[in-house]
């Protein structure tokens, strides 16, 4: 796992780029949150989509809700960056749309957009 600290708009974002799947369940999400907070002090995390188990994007598994709740409970805002064009599920598309209009979770196409979103929310 590669963690970089990026400073933008007086905010520090931890950017994670990993070839391996880092978030597979709620415990691994919590472990990631704590690792990032301990190693970087950041409460904003951008992570590549490939580092998250594919079941996260199947809303009927309820995994997304459980994982997102961990991030919110620990006060961490996060963005998942990658290509979402392969997904055809209307509920997932609606979920992504609603998340992107909030302030805690963003689904974006690239790392720079993730950093921009995370550094511009309160």
Attribute tags:
122 residues; alpha/beta; Rossmann fold; five-stranded mixed β-sheet; 4 helices; 23% strand; globular
Q: Which secondary-structure class do the elements indicate?
A: alpha/beta
Largest sheet: 5 strands, mixed
The count of domains is 1
Instruction: Please report the number of helical segments.
Output: 4
Tell me the strand percentage band.
15-25%
Order of helices and strands: EEHEHEHEH
Mean pLDDT: 96
pLDDT < 50 runs, ≥5 residues: none
Cross-sheet strand order for the largest sheet: 1-2-3-4-5
CATH class category name: Alpha Beta
CATH topology title: Rossmann fold
Which CATH architecture would you pick? 3-Layer(aba) Sandwich
The percentage helix is 25-40%
Number of strands: 5
Q: What is the molecular shape?
A: globular
* Amino- and carboxy-terminal Cα gap: 27 Å
- The rounded Rg comes to 13 Å
Fold and architecture overview:
This protein is of the alpha/beta class. It has one domain: Rossmann fold (3-Layer(aba) Sandwich). It contains 4 helices and 5 strands. The protein has a 5-stranded mixed β-sheet, sandwiched between helices. Helix 2 links the parallel strand 3 and strand 4. Helix 1 packs parallel to helix 2. It is globular, with a radius of gyration of 13 Å. 28% of the residues are buried. The mean pLDDT is 96.
């Amino acid at each position: 796992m590669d963690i970089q600290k990026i400073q933008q708009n007086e905010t520090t974002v931890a950017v994670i780029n990993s070839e391996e799947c880092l978030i597979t369940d709620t415990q691994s999400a919590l472990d990631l949150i704590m690792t990032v907070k301990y190693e970087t002090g950041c409460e904003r995390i951008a992570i590549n989509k490939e580092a998250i188990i594919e079941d996260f994007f199947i809303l009927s598994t309820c995994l997304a809700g459980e994982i997102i709740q961990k991030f919110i409970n620990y006060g961490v805002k996060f963005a998942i960056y990658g290509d979402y064009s392969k997904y055809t599920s209307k509920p997932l598309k609606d979920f992504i749309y609603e998340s992107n209009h909030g302030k805690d979770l963003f689904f974006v196409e690239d790392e720079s957009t993730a950093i921009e979103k995370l550094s511009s929310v309160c």
